[in-house]
Amino acid sequence: MGSGDDGATTQLMKIAKVDLRGLQSNTMAWAEARAAVTASMAAHGYVVVVHDALDAELRRALFGRALPELYALPFDTKKSSGAFSNGPHRGYDGQVPSEVLESVAILNPVEPGNVRDFTGRLWPQGNPGFCDTIVSFAKNVLELAQTVERMTLEGLGVHEESIAWQLFSQSHTARMMLYGTPPDKETSNISLGAHPDDQMTTVIAQHEVGGLEVQVDGGRWLAVPPEPGTLIVIGGDQLTVNSR
Residue ranges per domain, the chain? Predict the structure, then answer.
């Protein structure tokens, strides 16, 4: 996965969107969606899905209030609060010379207590709106991620016992990223360099700004533009291992 713009290698490719809203397992609609999800994941390593995990109200709460509040905090507050462990893509990343971004992770964000503990170290007076938004988003996205993982593994012929164990045994992280503008756009306009994801899947909710690219077979980079009502699910190294 990467974010960049190299006209010689980057292509804008139309990837079919798979509508996962309101599906019930063991139905014809589920089977058709499963086939489309599996085909896209096998061919490209990712799938674009239509889903209401991030509806208009939750999107406004997340991108319009919660994340701006988080990133408006002073750097020293974020770094010294104890809420983060500074280091590459673990807890808090900020002011990293090789990257123009800030990145914040919350472990197991579907548990309200974890999010409250995280929030209390940043806002000692509390911030219930932030907590509610993050927990709601995390629960919705977890449901989506597990649906795509189940569909992909089923479509590849993995036994139900193995699928159930895999979904049950996972831990989850919500990572919120704020991309900046590279200081020298004449030499590079990449905010975050190319990198693999080591987990089962990564669900990406883009916020109206393009730049996401995914590398597919043959080394081509495909641009994945943001579209309202869609999320991108990218297969990671663990999915490759578990689907062999």
Answer: 2-242
CA 177 to chain centre: 10
- List the structure tokens of 192: 């975050």
Q: HSE (CB half, 13 Å, CA atoms) of 212?
A: 19
CATH superfamily assigned to domain 2-242: B-lactam Antibiotic, Isopenicillin N Synthase; Chain (2.60.120.330)
Residue-wise pLDDT for 66-92, tens only, equals 999 998 988 877 765 544 444 443 556
- Rounded to two decimals, what is the model's pTM? 0.82
pLDDT (0 to 100) of residue 99: 56
CA 135 to CA 113: how far, in whole Å? 10
**What is the rounded radius of gyration, in angstroms, for the C-alpha atoms of the chain?**
18
Q: DSSP characters for 194-243?
A: -----SSEEEE---S---EEEE-GGG-EEE----TTEEEEEE-HHHHHHT
Neighbours of 21 (CB within 10 A): 11
Structure tokens at 13: 């490719």
